[in-house]
Amino acid sequence: MTQTVLEVRGLTRRFGAFKAVDGVDLDIAEGEIHALIGPNGAGKTTCFNLLTGSLPASSGTIRLRGETISGLGMDRIAQRGLVRSYQISSIFPDFTALNNVRFALQQGRRTNFDFWRSELSLTGLNDAAMGLLDDLGLSDWAEVRAGDLPYGRKRALEIATTLALDPQVLLLDEPTSGMGREDIGRVTDLIRKVAAGRTVVMVEHNLPVVKGLCERVTVLARGQVIARGTYDEVAGDPRVVEAYLGKAHA
Ligand SMILES: Nc1ncnc2c1ncn2[C@@H]1O[C@H](COP(=O)(O)OP(=O)(O)OP(=O)(O)O)[C@@H](O)[C@H]1O
Ligand SMILES: [Mg+2]
Predict the structure, then answer these.
(1) b/e map of 53-76 (b: 16 or more CB within 10 Å)?
(2) Ligand 1 in reach of 43 Cβ (< 6 A)
(3) Residues in domain ABC transporter (predicted)?
(4) For residue range 192-218, what is the model confidence (pLDDT) as tens digits?
């Protein structure tokens, strides 16, 4: 039987009188790649901020492997294995790709000491960083300044620095945004690869990517879940069509 790794009930976040996230329930199964989709302003990023603890919820509960994590700070949630991909802005542009990953590994050693204590004592920081770069197709770019990397490689580096924390549940917010077709293909392959042995929840506007990658999809609109199921199930749901196109086209 599949285990639920992340269980969210009644998650709500108000900004003044406005509910950006309004009573959201989510069940994320161990090992799946789950998409969170919906039109602009639906509340997807706010949901991620609530899940990672970077924003406190107004109400609702979040359980990670049965333990309540709502109310814990970002660091403690990351320690328990739920990590969101770093944003490009958190990559140090003047560091090489290799040094960015080395730095992230040092951070990861602090947040996830047991894992990296054994790993790093075997291989050393440098080898571990090179291994991660290699996994992400970045070994040829190791000595390049992060700020000089092409856009798609920067996103791959962002994922590498996140993987350095060895998350069990990885949240990716629009991993393919702003990419050309070639980079999208590469990042899609990469997500499939890093998803082995982990759970991935991703916000993604590119629907062919969602269709190709994600086992299950949750659709948000105006802060509420309006559909859930496989891609084909939700794509055929009239409420989803209406949310994307507006009433006039439904
Ligand atoms: N700090 C904030 N203060 C006030 N309103 C906010 C704040 N953060 C988000 N919102 C509002 O909450 C709603 C949901 O925003 P959110 O960024 O979560 O949407 P999203 O689904 O990620 O959209 P997009 O697809 O455009 O990234 C929007 O109406 C947004 O303006
Ligand atoms: Mg967003």
Answers:
(1) bebebeebebebbeeebbebeeee
(2) yes
(3) 6-247
(4) 988 888 999 999 999 999 999 999 999
